[in-house]
Design brief:
Layout lengths: L1 E2 L31 H15 L17 H15 L11 H8 L3 H13 L3 E4 L3 E4 L5 H4 L5 E3 L8 E11 L2 H6 L7 E11 L2 E11 L8 H6 L4 H9 L5 E10 L2 H7 L6 E11 L3 E10 L4 E3 L5
Antiparallel strand pairs: 1-5, 2-3, 4-11, 5-6, 6-7, 7-10, 8-9, 9-10
């Protein structure tokens, strides 16, 4: 039995949504960050003032992100490269303003958005820190199953299998891989208050999780996403989910200790790391006799 889990997502009906979105191009590196905003603005003015050639079809007008969005993108690059690791403090607003040669207000607005995305967290009197899946504020962000009574908590899990195989076509599409590329498949049952509550089927990009075994999963004491972050340098940034009601088939009913045909909640998730790169497909079946699925909208 192994402690901890990270929400769930479900073997069952329907296909998950890929949900990857295109990212705007940003300046590379931090050494030349100062020149980026001015150069971008100058390029924008030149593009807008150039008259269209006679007989040529008018090109679509270029779009440019605000300065604070450009600074946010540069900070994200540093997070992705590991310059500031999970749990570490990032430079102060004054230091970042000097580094990027912008105002503190611009840096503050960029950090506000990063904090809103749960990528960094401000701590009163201490500074701003890179969030980690070890913290409750982050780990419960991906655990949406709430008990009817009491507070959300982590139970235990029983790993059924963990194996490396070739990606089926649908999983390859969702993970932006080629059919047949290496993936890791994990199946486990999550227990809350001693009752089997979630049946998880998880697919991971094989190249990002070399050496992951059932033994490592069983020995790890904590959320699975914290293991991925600490041991494999892969941090889950966001996820898309599809939810529907299904009936338990015979095999599922046996694993979850419910009658065949019992109503279950099917949750299919695709999780993304930095660069909006999909790294996990998670399909889970939830028993909601004593739990409900909570989603906060803002």
């Amino acid at each position: 039995m192994q402690g901890g889990q990270d929400g769930a997502a479900a073997p069952g009906s329907g296909s998950p949504v890929a949900g990857a979105s295109a990212q705007p191009a940003t300046a590379q590196g931090t050494g030349a960050a100062a020149a980026v905003p001015a150069q971008t603005a100058q390029t924008a003015q030149s593009a807008q003032s150039a008259p269209p050639q006679h007989g040529a079809q008018a090109a679509p007008s270029p779009t440019f992100s605000p300065l604070y969005q450009q600074i946010k993108a540069l900070i994200l690059q540093s997070l992705q490269s590991g310059e500031w690791k999970p749990g570490e403090m990032i430079p102060s607003e004054m230091e970042l303003a000097a580094r990027y040669r912008v105002s503190q207000g611009t840096v503050r607005k960029a950090i506000d958005e990063l904090a809103g995305d749960n990528l960094v967290a401000r701590r009163q009197g201490k500074g701003t820190f890179v969030t980690t899946h070890h913290e409750d504020v982050v780990k419960f962000r991906f655990l949406r199953l709430v008990p009817d009574e009491g507070e959300p908590h982590y139970g235990t899990s029983r790993v059924l299998e963990c194996k490396r195989l070739r990606a089926p076509a649908e999983i390859a599409r969702l993970l932006d891989l080629r059919t047949g590329d290496s993936v890791v498949q994990i199946r486990r049952v999550l227990f809350f208050s001693g009752e089997a509550t979630v049946l998880d089927e998880i697919w991971l990009v094989g190249s990002s999780f070399k050496g992951l075994t059932a033994e490592k999963l069983t020995e790890w004491k904590g959320p699975m996403y914290a293991l991925f972050e600490a041991e494999y340098g892969t941090r889950m940034i966001r996820a898309t989910e599809k939810i529907r009601a299904v009936a338990a088939d015979g095999a599922t009913a046996a694993l979850l200790a419910v009658p065949q045909g019992s109503p279950l909640l099917s949750v299919e998730r695709v999780s993304y790391t930095y660069g909006d790169r999909p790294v996990e497909v998670r399909r889970a079946l939830y028993v909601t006799t004593r739990h409900y699925y909570q989603n906060d909208l803002s």
